[in-house]
Design a protein that fits this description.
The chain is built from 15 helices and 14 strands. By secondary structure, the chain is an alpha+beta fold. Helix 8 packs across helix 9.
């Protein structure tokens, strides 16, 4: 993900952001509405790139997932035993607090959260944190079956009282719940925020924790970003063990359902794939080889939602013309018939289908309409989302 072109006039903005992060800004220096809009756009653009990464199934693989995750842990001086999700995860990882036996937050949980907090503070000052939080919740919610991100945990109020007590009078709305977990969405958010305020090219290193500055942390973050591309999901830390979990690459439709019309909608780090159509799990054949489906196979399918997908992939017109049907109603226009058909599918209610013939090409078009409609005009009105009377007025006009 290369940098977005930056105007020379914006360099001063980045210098100001650096002063605000490091606490060297003047008392009168605040994020203006223009600067907030500028930061927000850069964040959103960067996040769009990350959503492409999360959908890219070509890059997910177990070797890179393991190697890059482990490289980051070692760079962060983790001396705990590292176990991966394919191994048995001990019950000791089920705790939700991030503290060691001395009461200190485990490393590198502490430095990762501090880096995030420093960036989030600037977004909060600029009045754009709420939008960031909402976007990250919506994105992470799509993956909530595989990882409960810290943004998801915050929305449901997990560890709210403990977190508020820990920060005391310094508690801010952008603080995430105390947890021994670091998930990919925390790293993605940190990277997007850092990029949005001119990171990589325009910010000098700034201290984070115990001799670790932003440059050191970002050198390690590069491994995490590669690990995410390869399928990394989250870490769970204890004093003795670090659990490393993967999440699948997924594709979604506009309603947030797992979906891909022409390929796998899910791929695991192991290389296994799964197929979904509008959230319905289906066999590979239905998606990849619908021409091999038969009408008999479709009719014998018991699951009604899978049957719907099979009909759509097979082609509604092909399906209708292969079965018995009768005409409920028809309208003749010149030499063409516009018909409402009732199609016998042997089990269950018949399908109601509009069959419309294009007068210029003679091509037939088919459209499902709800059962119970008996008149062609009512069916056509339904497809337009209007009443039959409104349809009459339209044609009269």
């Amino acid at each position: 993900m290369g940098p977005i072109k930056t105007l020379l006039t914006e360099v001063d903005d980045f210098k100001k952001f650096h002063r605000l992060i490091t606490g060297t800004a003047g008392k009168s220096e605040k994020i203006s509405d223009r600067e907030a809009s500028f930061i927000s756009k850069r964040f959103n653009d960067r996040l769009e790139n990350w959503q492409i990464v999360l959908r890219n199934m070509n890059s997910i693989n177990e070797s890179d997932f393991r190697n890059h995750s482990e490289a980051w842990l070692k760079l962060m001086h983790c001396d705990q035993k590292i176990i991966f999700s394919s191994e048995v995860i001990p019950n000791s990882l089920n705790k939700t607090n991030p503290f060691d036996s001395s009461g200190k937050i485990l490393k590198p949980v502490s430095v990762s959260i501090k880096f995030y907090n420093m960036l989030a503070e600037l977004f909060y000052q600029g009045g754009i944190w709420t939008n960031v939080q909402q976007r990250m919740y919506e994105l992470s919610h799509l993956y909530s079956e595989f990882v409960k991100s810290l943004f998801y945990d915050k929305r449901i109020g997990l560890n709210y009282e403990e977190t508020k007590k820990f920060y005391g009078k310094h508690y801010q709305p952008y603080h995430l719940p105390l947890s021994n977990k670091l998930d990919c969405f925390l790293f993605i958010t940190s990277e997007c925020m850092f990029y949005a305020i001119g990171g990589y090219s325009y910010l000098d290193p700034f201290p984070i924790e115990d001799g670790i500055d932003s440059e050191t942390y970002l050198n390690g973050l590069k491994y995490i970003l590669k690990a995410i591309d390869a399928g990394f999901g989250f870490f769970v830390f204890t004093e003795g063990v670090v659990g490393v979990y993967s999440i699948p690459k997924l594709k979604f439709n506009e309603r947030g359902q797992i979906h891909c019309a022409d390929g796998p909608a899910m791929k695991l780090v192991s290389g296994e794939t799964a197929y979904f159509y509008n959230g319905i799990s289906v066999d590979e054949k239905i998606i990849m080889h619908p021409q091999e489906l038969s009408v008999k196979e479709i009719l014998s399918t018991k699951h009604p939602h899978i049957k719907e997908v099979m009909i759509e992939k097979y082609g509604l017109g092909n399906f209708v013309e292969s079965l018995r049907y009768f005409v409920l109603d028809e309208i003749k226009v010149e030499n063409s018939f516009y018909q409402l058909l009732s199609v016998d599918i042997e089990e269950g209610d018949p399908l109601n289908v509009l069959r419309v013939t294009c007068p210029s090409t003679g091509k037939k078009h088919y459209l499902r309409v709800p059962p119970g409609i008996k008149k062609f005009k009512d069916a056509l009105a339904w497809t337009f989302g209007v009443s039959s009377r409104e349809l009459d007025i339209y044609f009269e006009t």
